[in-house]
């Protein structure tokens, strides 16, 4: 059964495979804390499934099975696949933001380095981002506009910070900040893909090499 069929049955109050059977009362889920714990368990399972199979192939039925629920039971916690997917991405972003901290012209490169290092410790989140960002190049994908916005906003914010750093002599004067902002994202994405294919790839060391060779001014030989 496809996910849209599961969602239609759940919305109608039916148990998959038994149309017309009554849905369990929402109050039967137990306490608020228990419900929140189960919701988080679902998100954790969805991260694994979406990170491995992508959005379209990632099955609500498989996610439900991982947390010992029926698909209809899962739908008591999330209204549908897209809402669950959105929550998975939101939590992924929160984890990355916490790892990076606040960014300024003097800390941008170190904060990005922290994200690279963090990604190397969280294969599930890194796989999720890599798989979904590739899928989202399809204009019909539910995350297409979101990922286009992410890259555009990242370029805008990073290029401004890089321009400030350039003005203060923290990075090379002969690079274009806008191009550099796009290249930082491209290098990070490319390293993630290579690491997922071969976990001996040291993303942090390679990102450091990129920064040294492209962004930082060479040392003054007279110094």
Question: What's the helix and strand layout?
Answer:
Elements: H1 3-11, H2 32-57, H3 60-66, H4 71-74, H5 81-100, H6 108-119, H7 123-135, H8 144-167, H9 177-197, H10 203-215
Helix pairs in contact: 2-3, 2-5, 2-7, 5-6, 6-10, 7-9, 8-9, 9-10
Explain how this protein is built.
The chain starts with a helix and ends in an 8-residue tail after the last helix. Helix 2 packs across helix 5 (81-100), helix 8 (144-167) crosses helix 9 and helix 9 packs antiparallel against helix 10. By secondary structure, it is mainly alpha-helical. Mean pLDDT is 84; it is low at 9-25. It has ten helices and no strands. The radius of gyration is 22 Å and the shape is elongated. It has helices at residues 3-11, 32-57, 60-66, 71-74, 81-100, 108-119, 123-135, 144-167, 177-197, 203-215.
Can you tag this structure with a few keywords?
223 residues
Low-confidence stretches: 9-25
Share of helix, binned? 55-70%
Quickly count the helices: 10
Topology pattern, helix = H, strand = E:
HHHHHHHHHH
- Class by helix and strand content? mainly alpha
Shape: elongated
Distance between the terminal alpha carbons, to the nearest Å? Answer: 70 Å
Mean pLDDT: 84
Question: Nutshell version of this structure?
Answer:
The chain is mainly alpha-helical and 223 residues long. It has ten helices and no strands. The radius of gyration is 22 Å and the shape is elongated.
